[in-house]
């Protein structure tokens, strides 16, 4: 439709009228093309693309990506439950995270997942013990902390040595030296993940180089050479005016270090764990303007979406572009305005000082762009607000993939 925002040809306004607001809308085609770009870039390698479930954990999204050939990267037993419910093959599942419990380990071992990304010696010892009880072997990649600065927001940086993630080089080498004492552990790979929303390849280049050096050292110590490397996620997207690397350039960098032409390392299977780069720009959050008001010379647009629906702005200054669904509301005079939600917190500001049309008023619809990753998956019920519905548009067909919550959902499980 001309002059209005659409998802795969369906006007968002039509969806908002039918399903109400706030409303998450995703494009299946967008998910597919982002995934296929990565798949194409790595086609010359034995590879596995594990979608980071925490970015968007809706069952329909997981199932859609699994059909395209994706595996999954998990950070909790709850995510394992989701991935298995969505029909993902356990052989394509990797389990990351600094704090796996014995119960989570047991469920994953019984399911027969591809590997655990282990983040401490203590975790390795526990995993060995749980595996022995179940008479299973535990395939493991040690998460290496390469100590590089990803130059991203400090709250989403994970690869510096002061971060809680991963294990430093000397300790990884020490673990390798004594790995035979942990009889159930199969030390098969190294994993890294240096941060999220990376907009330059330089820190990855450095991290890959250190990882390759470490793998060569380990192969001299270990009884059997490592069989895979997991390079994590982190590729950035455009929220505002960032110019993140293209998927093809990102894959070329991977090939430079781990590709078939690189003869210094033995052939390794390469895993990646993209979340944001697949999901971020594949979805939006549609919201309705409730009120417009002015306080001491400052203008506010109060909308029906809030920090509980989309937490990124409050949590780490996340930026989401705001577009009126009807383009005619993009013309004319604009003023700087704060777009805020109804939640009783001053941090419930979805967008500060945005230049938006003076015409925007009660009842008008807007889209918070780039909300497909870390949007609904972070949504919560603060202020006893039911979570929004989620819609997936695929081949001109819009389908509810999560019902809007009702008040009864809010008190389920409570007793008095
Ligand atoms: C969050 C996370 C990812 C995904 O990161 P994106 O920036 O969304 O690509 C991948 N791997 C691990 C271990 C993570 O914690």
Q: What form results from the Cα inertia axes?
A: elongated
Spans of 5+ residues with little confidence (pLDDT < 50)?
Answer: none
**Separation, N- and C-terminal Cα atoms:** 52 Å
**Biggest beta sheet summary:** 9 strands, mixed
Percent of residues in beta strands?
15-25%
The hetero molecules present are: pyridoxal-5'-phosphate
Backbone CA Rg:
23 Å
Determine the structural class based on helices, strands and strand pairing. alpha/beta
The number of distinct helices, counting runs of at least 4 residues, comes to 12
Q: Average pLDDT value? A: 95
Tally of strands: 19
Work out the helicity level.
25-40%
Provide tags for this entry.
single chain; alpha/beta; eight-stranded parallel β-barrel; 12 helices; 19 strands; binds pyridoxal-5'-phosphate
